[in-house]
Amino acid sequence: MTTITPSSSCSEQQTSVQEMNHDEEDLHHFKIDLFQPEVQEYLVQAMDLKDGGESLKKALQTPPNISTVRVNTLHFRKMDENKSHDEIMEQARMKLSEILENKYEVKRDEHVPDCLTIPVTKLFPSFENIREFIVVDRLCGQAVLRGSHVFSPGVLATSKNIRQNSLVAILCDVQSQTIKGFKFEKSISDMLSGSEGNFIYIGNGVIQMDRASIFQTRKGVALEVTQPLYETCSLNNLSQKYYHEFFAQNICSMVVSHLLEPQKGDKILDMCAAPGGKTTHIANLMQDGELICCDRQKSKVDKLVTLREKLGYHMMKPIVLDGTKATRRLDVQNEQTALVAKEVTTTNATHFLEEEYFDKVLLDAPCSGLGLKGSLSFKEISLDSLRQTAEYQRKLLSQAFKVLKPGGVLVYSTCTINPMENEENVLWFLNQFQSKIELVEANLKAYASEGLPSIIKDSSLRSRVLRFDPIHTPQTIGFFAAKFIKKML
Q: What ranges does the record give for the region Disordered, renumbered to this chain (predicted)?
């Protein structure tokens, strides 16, 4: 998204947007509570945060300072097999710059070989001369922080006198408790004072519909964000329109697929593959072989099938599978049950996998999501739910071990900063299988730190895992990855 000068119809309300190089703390979204008190207390202690967690809150409420795009190098290589990787990446960089109309400086990442980066600029818009506003829900507010316009389903309420084509402030109800369609008569300052609720200011934009249409149509762009807090290009349509060439993906997710080191001819399992970003990356890297990609919901597996057909990745075999019961065998006479990966022919069956069948397994586990940057609230997540999520992940880890060949590689990852789901699960896995599994050194450490010393006491083990800390690495979300090898006995 670029900063756009409002139309002449709202020129009387134009505000200045100043680009700043220093970090200011006067934005309202830095002052709201992010976690339940017991969750914050736990994270502060486990992560040894001397400031009581303020730096963590600020880091998570701020989008990454770069947008990242993965290049589908296999597509470019098919067009010219004689090109080197460097030549392919330069061709892709120039193509992406052209798609973005040369408005942004597109660069190759220095550490992740198939990653392109686009800068995110922090801006400081003002609502000083604006009277009217709209209120959006939390999910819409988070999307705006990441570069999206405001679509009508995300609008909760407005001030009394908004009109089409006028410049208004965008407020977000962090708890999404505002009554749909409500008309506020308060000023913006009063809304942000706390007396009316938990509201934050996230930028300015031009209304694209009349008020009635916003709440009646339930589709379309209700407001074009012209003065965001963070200026970045919108990548919403990139993976749809240019899907053969590019995939919008965070840089940590790209690292995970490289940790797996896919090779031609490998038999690989992606245990929790939806929505398909890592699976298609693995397919792009391996080029040929067998890639079983699973989800327990058929609707998500159907989308993986569609993705496979669009990209032409014939090695992808999407199946319906509950990862916690991956090797469970039922009645062999049941026509709805396929018992081995080699027999996969349909997404309609419930599948079960052979033990010790796969050369490599990726377990990008369902998680609490406490690492997602540009987030405005995690208050729905309790300490007990964090424990339950970690327990669920252990069931997946146990099944991943069973289907992995001796000598095979397992990569475990999450998009959370919760130590229970990360370092504690690594220790549990090592203890559970003891002499049968080894935690090995993970490469691509440029954006990662070692594990938490409060959890992993052994420094040699601690140095082998990758903890992506959003406080110290503004390029990334909060993320975690560990690489294991199943020992040959």
A: 1-21
pLDDT surpasses 60 at 344: no
Degrees (nearest 5) of the Cα angle 352, 365, 42?
A: 145
274 is known to lie in a ligand binding site = yes
* Cα–Cα separations (whole angstroms), residue 379 to 23, 38, 60, 138, 234: 26, 10, 13, 12, 28
**Of the residues 140, 233, 294, 415, which is catalytic?**
415
CA 326 to chain centre: 25
Res 18: pLDDT: 41
Is 364 within any annotated ligand binding site? Answer: yes
Q: Is 278 annotated as a binding residue?
A: yes
Please check whether residue 384 is in contact with residue 40, taking contact to mean a CB–CB distance below 8 angstroms.
no
pLDDT in tens, 160-193: 999 999 999 999 999 889 999 999 999 999 999 8
Are residues 168 and 133 in contact, defined by beta-carbon separation less than 8 angstroms?
A: yes
Which positions ≥6 away from 460 have C-beta within 8 Å? none
Q: Is position 222 annotated in a ligand binding site?
A: no
Task: With beta carbons less than 8 A apart as the criterion, state whether 456 and 449 touch.
Answer: no
pLDDT recorded at residue 32: 80
The pTM of the whole model exceeds 0.85: yes
172 is in an annotated binding site: no
Residue with more model confidence, 329 or 225: 225
295 is in an annotated binding site: yes
Per-residue burial over 452-467, b = 16 or more CB atoms within 10 Å of its CB, e = otherwise: beebbeeeebbebbbb
From the list 365, 434, 417, 437, the residue with the least C-alpha distance to 395 is: 365
